Structures are given as structure tokens and as C-alpha cells.
Amino acid sequence: MSYFQMLRSAQNDALEPPAVSAAWAFAALALLLLWQFLTVHYNRSGNWTALFLTGRTYEMPPQLVAGTYRFSGAGYDGEMYRYVAHDLLMQHGYARYMDGPAPRYRRLLVPALAFLLAGGREAWIDAAYIAVIALFVFAGAYWLSRWAVLMGAHPAWALGFLLVPATLISMDRMTVDVALAAFTVAFAVYWRTGAGWKLFVTLLLACLVRETALLLVAGVSLFELLHRRLPRALLWASSALPMFAWYFFLGRIFHAKTRFGAPVWFANKLGPGLFYHLLRPPRYPLPPALETVARFADALTLAAILLASILAILLVLRNRPIAPLTISGLLFAALVFALTARAYWIDVNGYARVLSPLLILVALPAIARETRHAFPWWLALVPSIVVDLRLALQFTSQIQGVLRGLLRLG
User: Rounded to whole angstroms, how far apart are CA atoms 406 and 126?
Assistant: First the structure.
């Protein structure tokens, strides 16, 4: 009997059928769509393109100007991935309107799925993109529910996927990170159940979401190497080959600034990074009391990321046997200390979504009650809760707008 067959035979999926998990995932999806409908209707004049958070700093492709809801300022990453989806085949020259065409096109999967779902029809791509984000929320919630069932917990844990920082940011700004968050949960589920080919496909697709998925591939590959299974390690590592082939192709078209092949935001000079803003959080043009709250919340959020990193290290040091999940968690913790650029740690929307896999990989053993030898299980949920509370401050005006609109109806 193979390794994966032994794992599969050890599972008792009959505890709760997949249909139950799907029902809870539909509940999560319904809550997501309800919120998006309410905030678009009451805060954005019913214009769903507002979810891409398109700003006025960058010039827009003329074909997309009409009907696009625009905000003052620089906007956010979602507007750039929207351009990729509209010009996936690079025929319209939208790359010149992007802040960095190479890294935007590298994160291919979500824009490509939107393009395919729309059948390449320009008028349908925005709706298709929003639908793809929603589908990844459903998938992530479903996989989280299956993980909970496997661990003997309630399938309603599916709703917890709505509280992953990457989910909150993606539902509001159409960033691609919710897809990697979903694949991170799938990574855990398929490893635990021994579904080898599903795990391979998960890793392959995750690498096409964004480059940090390589830490998931590295986790399972290093696990195999620790057990002296070189052929299996090479097999898992090969799941990243399509990503590297795509990067090579883009490298012939675009010339992104890198240091030793790594993006400039990563391969920075040595510095305090997170610790700098932990001790000196950024200032805001707010009244003194509100600024104090915002700065304290920023410091607390960075402390939560630091706590998650420490917990990931403890899971490796004190929990046995070591699993791919804990190895990948350790690698994401190392990423926290490797991101030394001060500017990277200013905006919670930036680091919280990129490091959501770290928060997930720390929290999943807590759901399974597998942290008892390292720390209390509830402590693993604290970093995500703290980050969510900081993100909640950004939703205050939207929530107020929705409440005012609903009260007018009453």
C-alpha cells in the first residue's frame, strides 16, 4: 500500500458528507455577495466596478473609462489585475497603463479565469472577474469546512474563511490573494487525505496566483527530502515549472527591476523592516484621538504578525511529527523577517493579504487541536482576529453608508 493510500484509508470522511460542507460554503458565499451588493448599492451608486478601487493617479485605458467608478488618489492593485483580465492576450497595449506590467501579468490565474469565464467578451470580463473572486471564497470556505470535518470539528468552520484577511481585502479591492488563501487550505486538506494528484494540481495553480505559493511547494518538497524521498521531492517541485515557464516568457516581453532575480520589494538591504513600524507606526492626517487609535491599531497588527511568526516556529520546534504544513508555515515566518523594506509594512492591506497563508497555516493545527505541545490552541487564532479588527477600521465608512441606506428604507 502506498503512502497516500495509507493516509486515505486512515480518514473517516463519512463523519459529515461533502454536501454539508458545500452548504456551509454557500452560506459564506451568500454573506459575501450580500455585503458586496449592499456596499455597492448604498456607497457606490450601484456601480460594481467600484470594487476594483480604480484611482485617478494613473491614466486608464480609454476603452475602460466609460462606466468605471473612480476614486481620488492612487487606487489599488485590483485595478491593475482588471487590466490584465481585459488584455490577457496583450493585444490592446494595456500594459502601459499598469504600475508594473511584469508582476501583474505574473499573477495570472485570477485574471485568466475571468477572461475564460467571460469567453473573452469585453463587456462580461468585469462581472466574470468579480464572480471568480466569489468562487474562490466558496472554494476556500468549502475546503476549510472539509478540514474541520477531518479534524472532528463542526463544518460551520467554513464561515471562518470570510475572516481570513486576504478574503476581506479581496472582496473589497478585487486583489488575487483570496485565491492563494483558498489553495493554502486545499494544500492542507489534500495532504492530510492523501489525494496526491489533487495536491499537485493545487500547488501548480497556486504558483500561478502569486509567487509566494512557492513556499507551499517548498514545504512539501522539504518534507520529502527529510524522509529521503528525492524522487517525490522532485515531483512536487515540478509543480512550479509552469510558473517559471510563464515568468521566462514574460521576461522576454517585459523587463522588471529585480535583484538577483527576486523582486525589489523582497530583495532589499538589511534593515528593521516590521520592527521599525512596530515601534514607530505611520502617522495619519486625522484628528489627534483618531490618529492615536489608528497608530495603536497598526502597532498591534504588526505585533500580531510577529506573534504568528513565533507560533509557526514553535510548531516546528515542539510538534512532532513535522508536516509540510508546519514547514511551509516556518518558511512564511522567515519571509516576515526577510521583508526588510520599511515601506512594505506601512499598509495593512499589503502585508496582511500576502501573509494570510502564514495566518492560515498557524490556525489550521489549532482547529485540529494539534498545538497542545507548543501553545494553547486559541492562541493560534489571535493573530487573525487582531488583523481583522484593524481591517474593520477601514470598513467603518462603508458600514455607516449601508446602515444609513437601510434606515432610510425603514
Answer: 27
